[in-house]
Design a protein that fits this description.
single chain; alpha/beta; 9-stranded mixed sheet; 5-stranded mixed sheet; 11 helices; 27% helix; 23% strand; globular; disordered C terminus
């Protein structure tokens, strides 16, 4: 097995887990040209990819090469440092696709080299970064990576005239939406969506151990307590513009809305590294106008809603003027529907620094 073949396998493994808010990492251990152990980070609080691979390899890890998609961590959080585990196992060489930008976990390469382990960086870095884009974006911008998800009909409608927006797309697209919730680790809706659709906002797919944090924007605290988003199926953060009974209070902006940049700063301070915005036109449009959306996930259904509510894109056209400079990352069929993924061009971070 070549270096590239081993790293490609590690990248594929990294995509399997739902470890938010932690990074997605895959690890393959190779000795004498054969795989002796492999693993991936399945969920936050569980074993890291390196620990899984070392456990599988046992004594065969001695003298092996470890291919990891992210620099092994060097700190003791909920699990011991992976750099120390690799050293103790007698791994001879570590090939890492990307350096870890998290200052709390960085330093693994230095620790490995100090112990006499050969360390290399850069192999298949682009592929590994794409698989781990949520975490890397959050660490670089010091705020959660933001995905706006929009499901709409072929004639550009996101809801029925009543405002109800459930079941526009088919079962396959809905499963993809559940996967996005699990991958991002937090999901946000506005007051109207929470009240009209009464969504659960959980990730109901196999392999999810930690349900996403549910963030509900309820500026005036008008939502009734009996909604499903307030049940005990997952943690919920209720955000308001007044302190009474709210989990988080935010200042108002000039147009009367909530300060979304302050929201992202607060979520990042609480450990959130990804946020899926599933709200209606007003909520998604607000994130777009603020330049806070890193990716758009558009799900197009082959149906007509005619006099339904118009898509958010029509209400946020000014914010999307730069969209032609964005990057189409994927166009896929999901059952009868079409999924389009658009990476938006650079904007500003909540702190005002231009992001890369």
């Amino acid at each position: 097995m070549t270096d590239r073949e081993a790293m490609a396998r590690a990248v594929r493994l990294s995509r399997r887990g739902f470890p938010a808010p932690n990074p997605r990492v895959g690890c393959v251990l190779v000795r004498d040209g054969a795989v002796v152990g492999e693993g991936w980070h399945r969920f936050a609080g569980g074993p890291h990819a390196e620990a899984e691979a070392l456990s599988q390899a046992g004594e065969r890890a001695r003298g092996a090469t470890a291919y990891v998609t992210l620099e092994p961590c060097n700190h003791h959080g909920r699990t011991p440092p992976c750099s120390a585990a690799l050293i103790a196992a007698g791994v001879r060489r570590v090939v890492a696709a990307c350096a870890d930008p998290n200052p709390l976990a960085a330093g693994g390469a230095e620790a490995l080299r100090a112990a006499g382990v050969e360390v290399e960086f850069g192999l298949m870095a682009e592929e590994a970064e794409e698989a781990n884009w949520r975490f890397l974006t959050a660490m670089r911008l010091r705020r959660p990576a933001v995905v706006a998800k929009i499901a709409m009909s072929a004639d550009g409608r996101i809801a029925l005239p009543s405002g109800e927006s459930r079941w526009i797309t088919g079962p396959a697209a809905r499963r993809a939406g559940h996967r996005l919730r699990a991958e991002m680790g937090a999901v946000l809706v506005g007051r109207a969506t929470a009240q009209v659709d009464d969504p659960r906002l959980t990730a109901r797919i196999p392999g999810v151990r930690n349900q996403p944090l549910r963030v509900v924007l309820d500026p005036e605290l008008r939502l009734p307590p009996g909604l499903r988003v307030f049940d005990d199926a997952a943690p919920t953060l209720r955000v308001a513009a007044q302190p009474h009974a709210a989990d988080l209070t935010l200042p108002r902006t000039g147009d009367g809305g909530l300060d979304l940049r302050a929201l992202l700063r607060e979520l990042f301070a609480r450990g959130v590294t990804g946020l899926l915005v599933e709200g209606g036109a007003r909520t998604v449009g607000s994130f777009l106008r603020e330049g806070l959306v890193d990716r758009l996930e558009l799900f197009l259904a082959p149906k007509l809603l005619l006099d339904g509510l118009p898509a958010v894109l029509a209400r946020a056209a000014d914010a999307l003027e730069a969209a032609p400079n964005g990057r189409w990352l994927a166009v896929r069929r999901v059952g009868p529907d079409v999924r389009l993924t658009l990476g938006l061009p650079p904007s500003e971070t909540p702190g005002g620094e231009e992001r890369r």
